[in-house]
Every structure is written in structure tokens, then in C-alpha cells.
Amino acid sequence: MRALRVVGLHEDGKSIVLEDPASRTRFLLPADERLRAAARGDITRLGQIEIELESQMRPREIQQRIRAGESVEQVAASAGVSTQRVERYAYPVLLERSRTAELAQSAHPVREDGPDVQTLGEVVAHGFGVRGHDYSQATWDSWKGDDGRWVVVLQWKAGRSDNRAHWAFSPGAHGGTVTALDENAEVLLDPNAYRPPRTVRALDPAREAEFQPTLDSVVPERAELPSAEPDPDDDTREIPRVPADPEEDTAVPEPRPKTKKNHPIVPSWEDVLLGVRSQRG
After folding, report:
1. How far apart, in whole angstroms, are the C-alpha atoms of residue 35 and residue 42?
2. DUF3071 domain spans which residues (predicted)?
């Protein structure tokens, strides 16, 4: 790198004339804000000027977007610059967000009857313990909304789901207060919102017999069915009529009711008086 010497101010009053001592070649250097910052040794101002020249996003806007909850990577992508150049302006704002989230954990949740005696951190830690979550793996953050209020967020992972809870933080005496902004925040603040699942236990064999149904309670009693065989002492049975002349009996005889085995057939009176041989037998 060759060293140049300052010759003086150019006649336009906006540039510095430099000269190479070896070759006597002269150069013009614009006397702008960057040169003045470099002459003062103001590196911060010099980096700020570089960002302003490379991007339309000014440092104040970068800090505003970081304070509103955006990450360094998001702002760098929007500004079209590297994350290293955004970090120098984002760093103090990120510290402010972290400090606010820490203060909010010492604030008191607002109940129906007023602020709770316990702090937000204590209530949330108890809720995590009841649900079996690892509170040490949860992360706190905060940002400032468009209305000027600070919003505190708690992020944690349960199984495969990513969860978030938001509270509005109002700094004040005794740590300030926080108010739930979504359902997750309300559930964490309500000690009665969680019910542990009931476990299924095997019954004691002695008591299990009490619940074992008996055969009589399952199968209904069978009703008495009438006998299919006729009563031999029943005089109401109908005795078929036998015609006097067998040749006149051309009709198909009516079916006789089934009688008992070895029961004698009683002949009709016509058979007895006329001496006609019965066709039944």
C-alpha cells in the first residue's frame, strides 16, 4: 500500500488534493462525512455512514425494527446488508429486550381481585412443574408494540409442538404487573386449569368377583312350552267320521292328529252297529 501526502484543498472546496511522493501523481479525495469521521477516529459513525450508503434503511429504523421484535437476520435481509453490520446497532436494543423480559418475570399477574402476591416467574414455574414440562428449557423475550407497551413472550416445546404465551407488561412499583394476552397465558396463570390424567388400575381379585355377572343375570329364564303330544284323557279330541259305504268315500281323508304310540283306536258307533270293518288299522 502506497502512502500519499496531503497537498491541500481543491479549488472547488469539496475535495482534498493528495500526491504520491514517488511518482508525483496527484489524487482527489472527497471531503465528505466519511473523511471527517475517519479523521476524528469515530469508527461507529464511520460504520453508520457505510450502512446508510449501502442501504436505504437508516440505523434508527434498524433499532426500531429490532425493538419491535424482529431478529438481526430479518433486518439484515430487509436492509440488504450483512448481519455483522446490523448487529452493532441491534446489540444495545437486544440488551434492552432481554432486560425487560427479566423484569417482567418479577411482575405480578393481574387477577379479578387485584395483583397476585406471587410473581409471574413463580406462577409459571409452578405451572410447568404440575404439567411435567422442563422450565429450564423455556426462553423469555420481549418487544415493544406500536402502542408503546411492552409485550413479554414465553416460548417452550412440549412434545413436538412449539408453544407461546404472551403478557402485557406494565413496569411500576413492586415489580409492576402483567396481563394475559392469549389463552396459553391465561392457562399458565390459572392453577385450576390443569387436571392430571386418571390412571387405570387393575381391580382386586376379591372385588372383581363382585362385578362378575352370574349366569342367571345374563340368560333369561326359559318359558314353559306346551307339550306337542296330546293328552290321552282329553275327551274333546275330534274322531273322524267313517262313511257306511266304503265306495262312496272318494275324498281324501283328512289328516289325523298324531296320537300316542300303542294307543288303541276307538271304533265309531256305526262300525259297531252295522258291522262295517274300519278302514283304519
Report:
1. 10
2. 1-169
Helix, coil or strand: residue 109: strand
Query: Residue 182: what residue type?
Result: D
Q: Pairing between strand 108-111 and 26-30? A: unpaired
For the record, the C-alpha cell of 62 comes out as: 434498524
pLDDT tens by residue, 199-242: 555 555 665 555 555 545 444 555 454 555 555 555 555 555 55
The rounded Cα 131 to chain-centroid distance in angstroms is 15
At 205, list the grid cell: 381379585
Residue with the three cell numbers 429490532:
66
Sole residue written with cell 275330534: 238
| Sign for the pseudo-dihedral over CA of 159, 164, 167, 172 | positive
Rounded to 10 degrees, the C-alpha dihedral 56/62/65/67 comes to: -170
For residue 157, give the C-alpha cell.
Answer: 416445546
